[in-house]
């Protein structure tokens, strides 16, 4: 086995379900073991092999392996920071979703209330229009009655109509002319001049 492949196999044997603290301590343990082995190195040629966790390792690969361990620890920290950042973003998005759901419910309730009020106003408008139409009919009938009374009184004065009927009609005419029938134009709607 060469120096790179045994290390790769050693690193990958860690349990991925392990907690982050155990993972850090294991990688720090590797770093400490490697550093301890590096510090206890002597200059003799016979000690060209070192053991890191029971696995022999050559002096030339020492700096590469140390860098690899440091990079691995750094990558784990980076992944941890990234997870924390993503978790924070997820929490922000979840709170924003809840806020928007609340706003949506409020706006939906306002729309429902506005629709109900609109329906009520449409019904009231229909009732008012029918009342106006009924009043127009009554005004028209009153105008017709006044017009007939005027004709009747005129005929009665000329002696063409019976006295009793014309007398009563003339009295009714006097009462009706006291009313403001010209003010009933408001029930007819706008005139062409306005």
UniProtKB/TrEMBL annotation:
Residues 73-97 are annotated as: Disordered. Residues 65-117 form the BZIP domain. Keywords: DNA-binding, Nucleus, Transcription, Transcription regulation. The keyword Transcription regulation applies. The keyword Ubl conjugation does not apply. It is found in: Nucleus. GO terms for molecular function: DNA binding; DNA-binding transcription factor activity. It holds the Pfam family bZIP_1. One of its GO terms (cellular component) is nucleus. InterPro entries: bZIP, bZIP_sf, RISBZ3/4/5. Its main location: nucleus. PANTHER family: BZIP TRANSCRIPTION FACTOR RISBZ3-RELATED, BZIP TRANSCRIPTION FACTOR RISBZ5. This is Basic leucine zipper 9. The lineage of its organism: Eukaryota, Viridiplantae, Streptophyta, Embryophyta, Tracheophyta.
